[in-house]
Design a protein that fits this description.
Elements (H helix, E strand, L loop, with lengths): L9 H29 L1 H19 L15 E7 L6 H18 L5 E8 L5 H5 L10 E8 L6 H15 L4 E5 L3 H6 L3 H26 L1
Antiparallel strand pairs: 1-3, 1-4, 2-3
Length: 214
């Protein structure tokens, strides 16, 4: 029996090689399945052992967040000064807070600092704000870091510890600055701000009551 002449078309030869390789793979896979079915007990033991072994290796490296935090190289700080502070005084306070931030972060890592003080002029802008400003004593400070910077969470942790001590009577809250955190926060920054301001109000009231009693 004569063999069919080999096709000259390169696409036909490529298809023929693919079909031959796939047939060899299919026969090998079938042989492997037959071996596993003939030795079911050994296969099941080896399979579950490999699953447990992979879990033991991967569990220490697995995160606990469904959406892990993203270091976008920016953070948004909301501050609330004592009620009734004029907007120019709040601006001076923002300058002092900005100086404190620049002392914590090296100058080479600070790319831009933007202050947004007081209430938005338009109600549309207010509806897009998640900092809930109530007057001229509120301000948002957006800090953008350079491309090569240390972890942003480390700077936020340092500022959380320093700013309340350096500016007593002023409430601070860090809001999500990147788009991913803004979408996935489910209102948590606002709740944390309310708890922070409630705690500050209680501490201030308790201090005033002790002063009045004395």
């Amino acid at each position: 029996m004569k063999r069919a002449p080999q096709a000259r078309n390169p696409l036909v030869r490529l298809q023929k090689r693919f079909e031959d390789s796939f047939e060899r793979f299919r026969h090998s896979y079938r042989s492997l399945l037959e071996i596993c079915l003939r030795h079911r007990r050994a296969f099941l033991i080896a399979f579950f052992a490999s699953c447990l072994g992979s879990l033991a290796i991967l569990i220490p490296w697995l995160g606990r967040d469904f959406f892990p935090s993203v270091d976008s190289g920016s953070f948004k700080l909301h501050l609330r000064a004592p009620t009734g502070m004029r907007i120019e005084e709040t601006a001076n306070l923002c300058d002092l807070v900005e100086q404190s931030i620049r002392q914590q972060i090296p100058p080479s890592e600070v790319q831009n600092v933007i202050d947004n003080i007081g209430l938005p002029f338009s109600g549309i802008n207010l509806s897009y704000s998640n900092s809930a400003p109530v007057g001229s004593s509120d301000a948002d400070i957006l800090v953008t870091l350079s491309a090569k910077h240390h972890p942003t969470d480390d700077y936020i942790h340092q500022l959380r510890l320093k700013l309340p001590k350096q500016f007593p009577g002023v409430s601070f809250a860090f809001l999500p600055a990147d788009m991913t955190s803004q979408i996935l926060n489910f209102g948590l920054p606002l709740q944390s701000m309310c708890r922070l301001w409630e705690t500050t109000w209680r501490e201030t009231s308790a201090t005033q009551m002790r002063s009045s009693a004395n």
